[in-house]
């Protein structure tokens, strides 16, 4: 089988793993906000737990990314992470206190921290020939198909039985399917790094100033991006959306994410960082619509939120592969995800605090952070165009 065909097969297999995995934890994510609310948690607690989960899920990627480069045990770290990541979800069905539920939410993110840099490093090798933007976009699109199906499964479950714990319990099935598919991928591709033709690295020590500037812009985006559980908490508290229909809003956002990932990924391979300028301009209005608008504002806000997430989960990851040499991508992705997670945690905690005091303050902070990132992306896009010239 030709290398390009094998690369596509590898991306598709990992895409199927992510599809089943996202059915599991994104299905759970669609209701964790209101679920914590039923257990007595406040808006500040929901924002803090969401942010803490992302903090753990991203900061520890620095260590796991470095470890993956140092040991080259990409599959071991990927398997370990997915196991922890996925099995924490159905355990939420057994919780009866917001503190225990919060712990499992953080543990789920811990598993994601363990496996993501190693998995992304393997994907970066496979997407070299097919285009990093298109490859990561395809993976993200399959990922988000699962993110649509998961909330729909939860919605259907809650429609028949209005019990959050039952919704968490049924997600054990896609969790097991993800682990089975991962086993198949491992048996077919024991050394994914062989999918990338070796080239001489132009940068072998440290990361370039462009990489750090890019990471700063990504951090601004993350800081100003409200996590969906806080949006879902707002929808439930204000009565804009019924508890069973909140999952549908998340499914809508994930569906937009899937389509957007394919389009933005292909566009990134053609125009580079200018893609991030476009995506940020479009998605920056999600907060005013979701938190200040009525029902239709909430719908539109969820759509714009999904567009922004498609850029963060596909194009922003693809850009790292262009900025980091192949033999340091585990570390590069670890640093990238850690910076992103620190900013996400700080922003989520602040926005949870602001929500309890001033929803308008939350909206202003979100928009200003996105606009600041936009300026940096414009600078990077201009530098990219001069490089091409």
Q: Which SSEs are present, and which pair or pack?
A:
Blueprint: H1 3-38, H2 43-71, H3 74-87, H4 98-126, H5 132-160, H6 164-169, H7 172-188, H8 209-223, H9 228-238, H10 246-271, H11 274-283, H12 286-292, H13 295-323, H14 329-355, H15 359-388
Helix pairs in contact: 1-4, 1-5, 1-7, 1-9, 2-4, 2-9, 2-14, 3-4, 3-7, 4-14, 5-10, 5-13, 8-14, 8-15, 10-11, 10-13, 11-13, 11-15, 12-13, 12-15, 14-15
* Mean pLDDT rating: 85
Shape: globular
The CATH level-2 architecture is identified as Up-down Bundle
Number of spatially distinct domains: 1
Proportion of strand residues: under 5%
Task: Tell me the radius of gyration.
Answer: 20 Å
Task: Give the CATH class.
Answer: Mainly Alpha
The parts where pLDDT drops under 50 for at least 5 residues are 199-204
* Residue share in helix: over 70%
Main sheet characteristics: none
- What would you give as the CATH superfamily? MFS general substrate transporter like domains
- How far is the N terminus from the C terminus? 36 Å
Structural class: mainly alpha
Order of helices and strands: HHHHHHHHHHHHHHH
CATH topology: Growth Hormone, Chain: A
Q: How many distinct beta strands? A: 0
Task: Please give the count of helices.
Answer: 15
What is the structure about, briefly put?
The chain is mainly α and about 400 residues long. The protein has helices at about 5-40, 45-70, 75-85, 100-125, 130-160, 165-170, 170-190, 210-225, 230-240, 245-270, 275-285, 285-290, 295-325, 330-355, 360-389.
Describe this structure in words.
This protein has 389 residues and is mainly α. The chain has helices at 3-38, 43-71, 74-87, 98-126, 132-160, 164-169, 172-188, 209-223, 228-238, 246-271, 274-283, 286-292, 295-323, 329-355, 359-388. The chain has a single domain (3-189, 207-388), classed as Growth Hormone, Chain: A (Up-down Bundle).
